[in-house]
Amino acid sequence: MSVRSVEPVVTPAAPGSSARPTPGGVTVRDLVNLRHLQATTLAGEAGLDRRVSWAHVSDAFDPWNWLEPGDLVLTCGYIVPEEPMAQARFVEHMSAAGLSGIVIGVDERCPPLSVEMLAAADRVGFPVIEGAHTVGFSQYGRFVAAANARGEDHSFTQIARVHGEVMASLREKLAGTEFVDRLSRVVSCTLHVVDPEAWEPLIRGGGTPDHAWKLAYDGEVSRSSGRAPFVMNLSVGDQTALSMPIPSERSACLIAFPDGDSRPRLAVLQQIAAACALEIGRVDAAVERARRSGAGLLHEALNGRLEPAALTALFHGRRLEGDLRALAVDGQPASIDRIARRWLIRGVPFLLGEIGQVAVAVFRSDDVPQTDLEERTALERWRGGLSDPFVGPGNLGDAVRQARWALETVRPGDSAIASYGDGSPSFLPRTLAESELTADRVLGPLIEYDREQGTELIKTLQVYLECDRSPSRASELLFIHTQTVNYRMARIQELTGRSMRSTGDVSELWFALRALALSQTTH
């Protein structure tokens, strides 16, 4: 390692010093004063009294995202940037994250330490130490571990408290923010459990930090090659926060805002992240239960299998009263799952099921403003149709038909939400009876064949035409062999008397499929 035009500042041990740690924990000065470590202070002498909680060998180019405040970075130097200004920022980042200092071993892989880097270290009081080639980094670790052994008791106590809160949440059936608030008190932080992509809460009653924190989060992820590291130090203005990934099947992270000057230990925060993963799992289970029971009730209601009084009572029990609306959505399953989760977390009562390839939801008009649906449509890139407001489950069938009708006014491939009555394509049937007649006239043989043989010719035709008559693309979406698609299409042409080579026949089949979608209200 070479240093450009800088005289090292050697901090000698006091006469007769035994180099024992100062009261309250070991400091960087204590390590420099240990003669057997042969450490030399190059810069940042004003920070020699920084406490050292752990000495950690790091090969990360962004150690501030992997270590916690009080950690001493031990490196052979190849993580130090080449450019002088980048070296200065490297020091500033470590200092801002609360790291106690950096020990750089003598190694040919270390670039020359610039005047700019050492000046930055002096400016922020961040110790830059040269480690002797003959001294292993393990010597630093052993001394720090022995000196701070008692200090770990507090972390163990906090981890035990986290485990205790998890057990209490199971006994007392705590959930959502009530559970997370208890965890917050363990580490004296305000905690948020969020989806970092949609920037939405993942627990009931939860909130999200301001959008400025989303920008700060995305910026740090971008600087970390697009992947969130173990911990990220975020800052917006004068406020700071820590972000840590939550181990979950979905994208999730924990955002912690310290209530005071002290920051939580990462080992404790990691336990809290694991506890939050359990809460996310509970929300997942609740969403699945709500979707299944809601889909069953929706199916029973649309098929007229329930007495009006019983149906009204069931709607009342789900708080589905007053002005209701029906929503039909043509979107990805993950998008439908996100809207169900969003409503459940917000306490919005809803029913959600499927009719053919379309998701159908019922909710209270006041709970879900149309502007909210428009924003969700732009985010999820789906097609949606919205019914007029209606009162009582007796009008559910008409409302679902209206939503389906509105959906069909949005062209396939577009992303928009339409309300019933906003517009209707002149080429589509105008009534339910006309829709059924058109679908039966063109697709009747396919519908009957699918019913008798248990095949999926209608679905195959739909996917085939949506894929611009590409057998290979259709086979990928249907999870079948290309030859199977070709066989089915030959059978479809035989049964309908229409040819895929005729533009007129293809158009007639396409319009018939849309008429069939309009006619399907209950299945």
TrEMBL record:
Locate the PucR C-terminal helix-turn-helix domain: which residues?
Answer: 457-515
Q: Where is this region: Disordered?
A: 1-25
Q: Which Pfam families match?
A: HTH_30, PucR
The cross-references to PANTHER family, in alphabetical order and at most eight, read: CARBOHYDRATE DIACID REGULATOR, DNA-BINDING TRANSCRIPTIONAL ACTIVATOR ADER
What residues does the Purine catabolism PurC-like domain cover?
Answer: 30-139
- Protein name per Swiss-Prot or TrEMBL: Transcriptional regulator, PucR family
